[in-house]
Amino acid sequence: MRELALNILDIAENSLSAGAKHVEIAVCADLEKDRMKIVVRDDGCGMDEEMLARVTDPFTTSRTTRKVGMGIPLFKFSAESAGGNFDIRSKKNKGTEVTAEYVISHVDRMPLGDFGGVVLQLVTMNPAMDFTVTAACSGREGVLDTREVREILGEDIPLSAPEVRAFLKEYIQENLVDIFGGRL
Amino acid sequence: MKSLEELRALREKMKSQTDNRSVAGSDETVIKVGMATCGIAAGARPVLEALLDEAEKRQLHNVSISQTGCIGMCRLEPIVEVFKDGQKYTYIYMTADKARKVIADHVVNGNPCKEYLIGEN
Predict the structure, then answer these.
(1) pLDDT at position B23
(2) In this complex, is the C-beta atom of A140 within 8 Å of any C-beta atom belonging to chain B?
């Protein structure tokens, strides 16, 4: 994993397999304090305390094909190797919240990468899930809520329609450039 | 800067087109991209993006592209599965360029890209 955006995609995929209906993703940066925070919160099936205690161990996984699960350990590593910290909270049948904090100027902090592309992929490829994506940087903030988009489009046009995807691609990219300005 | 208001206009424009979209029917091609940690780390995201862009550029309405979890051969990722004419084709070690070629040669023209298939190298 060379981009934080890919870590976000990976963690959000976990929410998908947890049967979440709504996923909130937030990337908030504070350039003055030199900190940035990534939060992924879902309303999926969650984990019990025993699983939660073991979940950052790469030899823990919910899948049945093999005994290795790298998603959460890699995300945790990305934060802790960049002077930040990592936190995961979960309640069985309520949902899960994953938080990672970074020191922006730390030499080992991965670049944010193509966050716009990841958001586009998540919102257009998961028709059964709603997303609220927040991007904030030193006072500027933008929110994309797929429930709002779906309301405008109505029931007959899916978010995956090529025309809608093309619009969202530009919409997301323009707003992210305005908010982050390539500084992350 | 674009605003969501423009989406309303787009919706009106698209309403008239939705009818001929549903005609796709049984000759549909299904494409799946492995998008678990292994796939993502190996570069599955640019592959998926290339597939979607190429399908959009060529106006392929009878192709359904989606993502799936771990296909089970992590060392061969990124993996793309194409279900066409009742057969399954598994492409391995994919890149964005290879993905575009698969759309052009296999999905559009019906000639599988043998050199990218599993078991060929």
Answers:
(1) 44
(2) no
Look up the ipTM and state it. 0.77
Q: Is A33 exposed, middle or buried (0-12, 13-18, 19+ CB in 10 A)?
A: exposed
Q: Which domain holds residue B102?
A: 24-116
Average pLDDT over residues B4-20: 76
CB contact under 8 A, A156 and B15: yes
Contacts of A9 (CB under 8 A, 6+ apart): A118, A121, A122, B35, B40, B45
CB pair distance less than 8 Å for A10 and B38:
no
pLDDT in tens, B31-60: 999 999 999 999 999 999 999 999 988 988
Contact B40 A9 (CB under 8 A): yes
Nearest to B35 among A13, A157, A166 (CB): A13
Averaged pLDDT for residues A138-155? 90
How many residues in total does chain B contain? 121
Chain B within 8 Å of A166 (Cβ-Cβ)? yes
Q: In CATH, what number does A4-179 get?
A: 3.30.565.10
Dump pLDDT digits (tens) for A42-84.
999 988 888 888 888 878 777 665 666 788 999 999 999 999 9
Per-domain residue ranges for chain A?
4-179
Considering CB atoms only, which of B2, B7, B37 is closest to A70?
B37
Residues paired with B64 in a beta bridge: B30
How many domains, chain B?
1
Q: Report whether pLDDT(A169) > 60.
A: yes
Rounded distance, CA B97 to CA B94, Å?
8
Residue of A nearest to B66 (CA): A125
pTM beyond 0.95: the answer is: no
For residue B13, being part of any structural domain is answered with: no
A123 neighbourhood in chain B, CB within 8 Å: none
Residue B17: inside a domain = no
